[in-house]
């Protein structure tokens, strides 16, 4: 059997098993098994499928046919152009969250122009590692960091910023730490296990930017979720209580316990939640602006409160 034939057979097997996008999934698994990029795989299209990889190939296909997200099977998901390790203890980073990171970087560079040096320039400096918490750069805190997608991306894009990241799950923090190490950002991130902002309230951190993509799915929507999400992604990363807003309410209440109000609070929200979350933020403090950002699917996806 050639590689092309293995691909065709796998696509039709996944399709018969009811997997969405069977061809794209077959392709990602094939690249993973062969250790090839897409173009490398196409160059080997007519070669025989390597016999020593056959058992592994069939194991992976069986997992995919059982509904498991391909990202957990291959152990990786790209976010903001960076390869993040993922596993069943963490939510798979979603492309819409890249827009949240982008907005935080944009506003952060606007408010702290001296801290906005790009990674490339900092790496090129003879001193090597940029100094932490350089004057004029913000402290940013990612609450519920999961895989570390937000925290690690911010630390690598904005190497002069100081990044704090917390999660309730020790397993998630372990994964986030591995990602930071793998992507060369470990020395710029402080981690804490704990409930939302609690660790930073206890250590009295002055947080300039709070960013969070908390669990926000209303519990009553569980039955309507895609099986891939409902059966495989961690429950604690998905559900935000009966109306989905519980974690926003608690974080907004915790703002008053911090030594100072952050100048930027940037939340990802679920469908139909933007007004309620904007309202919570407006009630809690005076802002110059509370902006809602729409994602590529046209859904109001992020709420960003700021004071210049
Ligand atoms: N912060 C992580 C992400 O955006 C995890 C979010 C979560 O688990 N709700 O991917």
Please tell me about this protein's structure.
The structure is a single chain. The strands form 2 sheets. A 7-stranded mixed β-sheet has the order 5-4-3-6-7-9-8, with helices on both faces. It has a two-stranded antiparallel ribbon with strand order 1-2. The chain is 43% helix and 15% strand. About 6% of the residues have low confidence. Helix 1 crosses helix 2, helix 2 packs antiparallel against helix 4 and helix 13 runs parallel beside helix 14. With 308 residues, the protein is α/β, with parallel strands linked by helices. The chain folds into 2 domains: 65 residues, Ubiquitin-associated (UBA) domain (Helicase, Ruva Protein, domain 3, Orthogonal Bundle); 211 residues, Vaccinia Virus protein VP39 (Rossmann fold, 3-Layer(aba) Sandwich), CATH 3.40.50. The chain contains 14 helices and 9 strands. The site of glutamine (GLN) has 13 residues, from helix 8.
Ligands bound to this protein structure: glutamine
The major beta sheet can be summarized as: 7 strands, mixed
What is Rg? 21 Å
CATH class membership of the largest domain: Alpha Beta
Strand order of the largest sheet: 5-4-3-6-7-9-8
Low-confidence stretches: 117-134
The CATH architecture of the largest domain is 3-Layer(aba) Sandwich
| CATH fold field value of the largest domain | Rossmann fold
Rough outline: elongated
Fraction in beta strands = 5-15%
Which oligomerization state do the chains in this entry correspond to?
single chain
What class would the helix/strand composition place it in? alpha/beta
The amount of helix comes to 40-55%
**What is the distance, rounded to the nearest whole angstrom, between the alpha carbons of the first and last residues?**
63 Å
The sequence of SSEs as H and E is: HHHHHEEHHEHEHEHEHHHEHEE
Mean pLDDT: 93
- Tell me the total number of β-strands: 9
User: What's the number of domains?
Assistant: 2
């Amino acid at each position: 059997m050639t590689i092309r034939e293995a691909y065709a057979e796998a696509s039709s097997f996944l399709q018969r098993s009811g997997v969405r996008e069977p061809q794209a999934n077959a392709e990602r698994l094939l690249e993973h098994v062969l250790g090839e990029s897409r173009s490398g795989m196409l160059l080997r299209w007519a070669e025989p499928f390597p016999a020593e990889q056959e058992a592994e190939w069939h194991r992976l296909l069986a997992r995919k046919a059982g509904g498991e997200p391909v990202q957990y099977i291959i152990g990786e998901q790209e976010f903001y152009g960076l390869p993040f390790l993922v596993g069943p203890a963490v939510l798979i980073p979603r492309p819409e969250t890249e827009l949240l990171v982008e907005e935080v970087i944009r506003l952060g560079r606007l408010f702290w122009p001296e801290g906005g040096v790009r990674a490339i320039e900092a790496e090129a400096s003879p001193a090597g590692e940029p100094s932490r918490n350089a004057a004029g750069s913000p402290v940013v805190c990612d609450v519920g960091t999961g895989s570390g997608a937000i925290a690690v991306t911010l630390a690598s894009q904005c190497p002069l910023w100081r990044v704090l990241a917390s999660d309730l799950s020790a397993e998630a923090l372990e994964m986030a730490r591995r990602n930071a190490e793998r992507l060369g950002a470990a020395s710029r991130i402080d981690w804490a296990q704990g409930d939302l902002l609690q660790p930073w309230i206890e250590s009295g951190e002055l947080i300039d930017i709070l960013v969070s993509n908390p669990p926000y799915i209303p519990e009553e929507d569980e039955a309507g979720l895609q099986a891939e999400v409902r059966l495989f992604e961690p429950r604690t990363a998905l559900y935000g209580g009966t109306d989905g807003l519980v974690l926003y309410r608690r974080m907004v209440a915790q703002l008053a316990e911090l030594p100072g109000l952050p100048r930027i609070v940037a939340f990802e929200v679920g469908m139909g939640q933007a007004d309620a979350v904007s309202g919570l933020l407006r009630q809690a403090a005076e802002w110059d602006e509370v902006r809602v950002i729409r994602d590529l699917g046209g859904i109001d996806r992020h709420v960003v409160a700021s004071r210049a």
